[in-house]
């Protein structure tokens, strides 16, 4: 049974639909489809699957199942739903780069941003677009008690909230999609040595070359980075920072300091893209409040 493909959306319109579903216990009309043998297929735009069909999305499917139960729905009527591959994607408007609405382990998209870099101080180029994803279950488990009664509009302005997201063992993924086609792996390694290295010194009180090199050492000279290459930087349980390039794991480092230093680039007090941080923050807050 196949779901009817849906359109692409901007990150803002996509999230409006997601929060409408989560908060109201309903499914927006534009996400409904029918497919095969009269069984209803709900095209949520989330790449959720039944646990027995796609084990790597088990957590996301189970969370939706729990949600349906909490709304006192007749869960049995959903037994024939087929959660297909992603039926919607999010487009970063200035580059055209696309991001799935959900990545591994049911991590939900919260927003996109851009990493720009000056060349000889004359011209800024877009190096990559990025999307930030969160595991809603771990977010609620780690921070729900502290922030669930807050107003999302106010919470997104609270720097302590961002610090708690970075410091706590919340499941986060930052997906980088390379835009600049002439980018060399050495430039990526050098950029992380500078940016993550400065954060390690900031949060740790001193430089930690050994820790930094354990992370940047994953970006070896044999790796090519054509336009569209995907780099996933994921915090796994226990503050393990995993690095994947086009789906292949190239490194893994256990360090809460490294995780905090990496995520500070995107949602810290001086992020690469300040407007992106506002949207990401509001959407993180909306999952809690």
UniProtKB/TrEMBL annotation:
Domain of life: Eukaryota
GO biological process terms on file: fatty acid metabolic process
Example of a GO cellular component annotation carried by this entry: chloroplast stroma
SUPFAM superfamilies hit by this protein: Chalcone isomerase
Chalcone isomerase domain segment(s): 111-278
MF GO annotations: fatty acid binding; intramolecular lyase activity
Family to which this protein belongs: Belongs to the chalcone isomerase family.
PANTHER family per UniProt: CHALCONE ISOMERASE DOMAIN-CONTAINING PROTEIN (PTHR47589:SF5), FATTY-ACID-BINDING PROTEIN 1 (PTHR47589)
Protein name: Chalcone isomerase domain-containing protein
Natural source organism: Physcomitrium patens (Spreading-leaved earth moss)
């Amino acid at each position: 049974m196949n779901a009817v493909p849906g359109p692409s959306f901007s990150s803002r319109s996509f999230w409006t639909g997601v929060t409408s579903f989560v908060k109201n216990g309903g499914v927006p009309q534009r996400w409904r489809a029918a497919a095969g043998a009269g069984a209803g297929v709900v095209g949520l735009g989330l790449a959720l699957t039944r646990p027995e069909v796609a084990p790597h999305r088990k957590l996301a499917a189970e969370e939706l199942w729990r949600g349906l139960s909490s709304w006192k729905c007749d869960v049995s009527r959903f037994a024939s739903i087929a959660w297909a591959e992603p039926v919607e994607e999010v487009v970063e408007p200035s580059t055209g780069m696309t991001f799935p609405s959900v990545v591994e382990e049911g991590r939900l998209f919260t927003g996109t941003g851009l990493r720009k870099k000056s060349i000889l101080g004359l011209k800024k180029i877009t190096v990559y677009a990025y999307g930030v994803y969160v595991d809603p279950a771990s977010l609620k488990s780690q921070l729900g008690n502290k922030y669930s009664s807050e107003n999302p509009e106010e919470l997104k302005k609270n720097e302590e909230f961002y610090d708690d997201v970075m410091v706590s063992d919340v499941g986060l993924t930052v997906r980088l999609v390379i835009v600049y086609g002439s980018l060399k792996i050495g430039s990526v390694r050098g950029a992380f040595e500078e940016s993550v290295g400065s954060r390690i010194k900031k949060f740790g009180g001193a430089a930690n070359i050994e820790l930094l090199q354990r992370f940047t050492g994953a970006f070896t000279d044999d790796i090519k980075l054509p336009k569209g290459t995907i780099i996933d930087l994921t915090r796994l349980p226990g503050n393990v920072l995993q690095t994947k390039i086009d789906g292949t794991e190239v490194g893994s480092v256990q360090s809460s300091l490294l995780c905090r230093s990496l995520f500070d680039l995107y949602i810290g007090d001086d992020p690469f893209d300040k407007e992106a941080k506002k949207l990401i923050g509001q959407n993180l807050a909306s999952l809690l409040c």
